[in-house]
Specification:
about 350 residues, 2 domains
């Protein structure tokens, strides 16, 4: 279980569900994390091209999971920009449940919402306190970080994490387990998901398992997921490839300045996706991108075309696909496909099939 956690938790900061009318800070962070996981799950499920029988079988399993671990209610008053984020994610969720393509205007709103959310998450991070539980253990309440945010001190710069994360393995493991416990409602939820994982595995085809196996959290569905021929195949998406081709064309006299600009830009994008990176991780990512750019520029035309898939994968920070034991691989499938709240996704799929006469 330990090695699979980073793959399924890198996109979310979550805590135990809070169902009060006025949400606590823990409850608000829980909701924000759940939105990312829920929308990612919809994208994964929509990309599987499930049969009616599969959708109904997975819906039954999702309901069994939700009997143990309920999703947050997504109600109550929220802090600052979190209210705008909720509104945007609700709109996105509805579009995805209806199986529609996400319009460009909404994609822009989603990107803005994710930036706002990540800025607050990053500003709230603090040294873990053993005296506190839930999100409060690592996330300060708004009154502690609002002055710094108002000055812009913590919004657009990489976060320097406390000494607690001097050991990246120990810190990452502790964080991952805290998130997993929160999202699934504690050990009982984790145990239930582990038991249901075998049934999820038996429901999917091998090609569908490959799709989920390589899936990563995302708010806007990747192009390859909308095209079953491409799903799980080539990794060179159009945007990454376009950027790398531009890198090769920059004249030498201006390259140093242009490279710094692009490295900074890509670093800000990663900050939005992963607001909890340590300073060491930030510097490592910057070096990786900078070194990749130099390698791409040094390649001959033939070398570039032959290696463009690998270059794009490296630009996105993808590691080689880990060969997980079957038990951990099945748990990953169940985590995405049975995450609390996914029964509604299968209901929507069955409803669309009924409307289409399938």
């Amino acid at each position: 279980m330990k090695r699979v956690l980073p793959a399924i938790l890198a996109c979310a900061i979550v805590a135990s569900p809070v169902l009060a009318a006025e949400l606590s800070w823990d409850g608000q962070l829980c909701e924000m994390g759940h939105w990312i996981l829920q929308i990612s799950a919809i994208n994964a499920i929509n990309g599987l091209n499930l049969s009616r029988e599969q959708a109904m079988a997975l819906r039954d399993l999702a309901r069994r999971m939700e009997a143990v671990s309920k999703p947050p209610e997504m109600k109550g008053e929220l802090y600052g920009d979190f209210a705008k984020v909720r509104e945007t994610y609700q709109e996105l969720r509805q579009v995805l449940l209806e199986g529609r393509e996400v319009p460009q205007e909404l994609q822009t709103k989603v990107a803005d919402a994710r930036r706002m959310e990540s800025a607050i998450i990053r500003a709230s991070l603090t040294a873990p306190s053993e005296a506190k539980t839930g999100c409060a253990r690592c996330h300060a309440p708004p009154e502690k970080f609002e002055p710094a945010m108002a000055r812009g001190d913590l919004v657009d710069i990489p976060l320097s994490r406390p000494d607690f994360f001097a050991s990246p393995t120990a810190g990452r493991k502790s964080t991952d387990w805290a998130h997993l416990n929160g999202e699934l409602g504690g050990l009982r939820g984790i145990w239930t998901l582990s038991r249901l994982a075998q049934d999820v595995d038996a429901t999917l085809t091998e090609s569908q398992k490959e799709i989920v196996d390589t899936f990563a959290c995302c708010l806007i569905p990747p192009q390859e997921l909308s095209d079953p021929v491409r799903a799980g195949q080539a990794d060179a998406s159009a945007k990454e490839l376009e950027l790398l081709r531009k890198v090769r064309k920059v004249p030498d006299p201006t390259w140093r300045r242009v490279k710094e600009t692009w490295v900074n830009y890509l670093n800000r994008l990663v900050d939005i996706k992963s607001p909890g990176r340590s300073q060491a991780q930030v510097q490592a990512d910057r070096r990786r991108v900078s070194d990749l750019f130099e390698k791409v520029r040094a390649a001959s035309d033939t070398e570039f075309e032959m290696s463009k898939e690998a270059f794009c994968k490296e630009l996105k920070g993808n590691r080689a696909q880990e060969d997980l034991p079957d038990r951990k691989r099945r748990f990953k499938f169940a985590y995405f496909l049975l995450n609390p709240g996914t029964s509604d996704v299968y209901d929507a799929i069955v409803k669309r099939m009924d409307a289409q006469g399938k």
